[in-house]
Amino acid sequence: SIIVERLLTARQEYGPQSLWVMVGYAWNSSHTQPFIRRFTDVYGSPNFTTDGSVCYRARAIAHTLTVGGIISMDFAGESRCEIIWGKNPDENWPPYGRAVRKMLAEGGKLIVVDPRATPLAKKAHIHAQIRIGTDCALALALLHVTIAEQLFDEAFVEHWTVGFDALVGHVKTCTPEWAAEITGIPAQTIREIARLYAANRPGIITTGIALDHSTNGIQTLRAVAILEAISGNLDVPGGNRCMPKLTLKNLRVPKAVCCSAPVDGGQYPIFTKITNTASMLPGIDQLITGKPYPIKNLILAGNNNLVTWPNFHKVARGMRQVNFKVVIDVFMTETARMADIILPGSTFLERADLRNYLQHYGDLSLVLTQQVCKPVGNAKEDWWIWAELGRRMGYGEYFPWQSNDELVDDMLSTTCVTRRELEIHPEGVPYGPREFRQYLKRGFDTPSGKVEIYSETMKEMGYDPLPTFEEPMDSPLSRPELAKEYPLTLFSYRINPFTGSQYFNLSTSQKRAKEPCADIHPDTARFHGVADGNWVRIESLQGSIRTKVRVTEDIPPGIIGAPFGWGGVTNVNRLTDDMHRDPISGYPSFKPLCRITRE
Fold this sequence. Notes:
The chain has 24 helices and 22 strands. Helix content is 34%, strand content 16%. The N and C termini lie far apart (50 Å). A hairpin with a 4-residue loop joins strand 19 (535-539) and strand 20 (544-551). The strands form 6 sheets. It has a 6-stranded mixed beta sheet. Strands 2-1-10-11-12 form a 5-stranded parallel beta sheet, covered by helices on one side. It is α/β, with parallel strands linked by helices. Helix 3 (57-67) packs across helix 12 and helix 9 crosses helix 10.
């Protein structure tokens, strides 16, 4: 009742745009997320943001611009070569790590592009230890070698691409020697990567969030997608797959959307066009300044933004400016502690979720997770919370569903899958066949119907239509004066047994990782007077954290690798900057210049 009163009053006094709803990773690829979006539509707010503002959607944007949809991988064990680029499957996707080891045991080739010597990098035929943020230069050099040595699929290029001739001229100067100066990878190694990938078809390239989190991210990911396409590894068994779209019932209510600009102010039109959401980073400034209009109410659903968003201090300041904050969660997170009201949502055991996340892993399956028990205590299923808010605010006609089963049935009504099938098959039900070269039947879902090496869409919106390398905005080369005081580059990564900011409260997890521990190279340790196991302070322009260090040759000199997800004084986002962003996606780099001192 309090929430309803606040929202209705604010809508009348400040307009519907005064509400900002933030949805976190918990609802990614679930039927709850579009249901929440329906609520913001009916209320009239354009301010709906998701974890896609900082995770994965950059890849979806780059792939959509290039091939018209998501590129995944054929996960059926037929690949003869795999390039793992900016990803550590052993930590963030163990089933894939096991599949790669199986591929290696069967004689396949492995290439790892990563600054760290990850466990799979140590087993790789080639480990390209790249300078942070220079991945686009490597991709362009690989395209150069592929074209110069005629390693590409000529028939595919001729019939199914647009702009190949422009690409030939564009990468003519992007030689391995040019890229070696930028990336730190020897020119001969770059040639070997291109040749090994071309000689062992079918091949897969899988990219991680490291490429998303770059001020040159979209151009990098487009270059990689183009490499996959011209190499003859796109939409073939054992290669990278173009994933068909799943059409669940659309819950949007477009006629009710407010005409005010969303919190991103239209700064990232390609992001908005492809994701159909606002980018959240510009909204932080709007929370603080109240311009162009004030945000009076925040509702956060499964979103621990004080830990997972860049520039902790700025995010905290922005949240303090908001009159009324509601958090829907099952844990007392750092973000929840700032809320005026906390609504206890449901755990995965207390609800049935319709999810289609498997398409990101090359599997055309829908999954309906099973409800084991009713929500405990005064917790509620999350869809019900939003439906009840809508009904109490007078929007009952837009929320007619009386049960989750009824909602799921309705959303499945536009598909070939039924709820009963999903209940019988908890492992998932395919919504499409395992087909390849689907473009032969209907082309690619791009304006030209082909792979768009040269993107007219990019050109029309003022961006380079061909992938172009730009030096990272926060590197020692781009900020030499700052680097004199902050000579090290920090990058963060997930570690088992944690995911994001989740599972830190579990005693079993705490036994495996009792405290955060940043990695530095022995040369870095000696130069800064730090020894293995020391407690240190890491500082950037934004703030500082306190952590232990592990001295290891798995990390190159000049950088600090820190685990992501810890809260409090060890939260790495106390160091990160929110203003250095990819100009197309709006994604932050999460890689600030910093320094280290022993405590």
